[in-house]
# Entry
Amino acid sequence: MRTKIKEFRARHNLTQSDLADKVGVRRETIVFLEAGKYNPSLQLAHDVAKVLGTSIEELFIFN
Amino acid sequence: MIGNPDWFTIRKWGGWGLTPKTWQGWVYILVMVLPLVLVTAIFRLSPETIKTVTLVWVSIIMLDVFDMMIHLKRDEREEKHEALAERNAAWFIVFILAFGMIIKALVTQNPDAVLDPVILTALFGGVLVKALTHFYLRDK
# Structure
């Protein structure tokens, strides 16, 4: 799994901590999410996509 | 109850329980432990009274720590990691207890060796807790 979280986060001028606070997780979770090492729940994927103003399909790329 | 879960973090590397992450956590430990030390060390109490006071006080501490462990905030990744770590620890404990009792009974040639009430309570209690957890989660 790859993600475009970092790219979208930069567009919205958000730090990892900002995004973590907005979706209610720890910063480490965002770090692993961005690196494609953590497979999030549908709820978290939805929340991250919503904060970044995009869709889950756009944000997460499954090979 | 008494302590605040925000003062602590779940202990990951050294067993079970909580580790202070703020100064309030350290103060909590001091405040909770000091009265017990003072009561048992300063006052001339009978051994029976000391035993009772210790039992009551330690029970209060354990209940409060348990309450904080339940209410401590975790995100979904932490919950998953904790669940897997606890599952692996539980499997290891069950394996050692069950296998250990069988080996002990065989080596000592004494079937009573497998009837340790504490170990049996732990094992059957674990079975009950597991069943209750599945019952609670069945529609989720």
Q: What stands out?
A: Residues 42-51 of chain A form the longest helix (10 residues). Chain A is about 60% helix and 5% strand. Chain A has a mean pLDDT of 94.
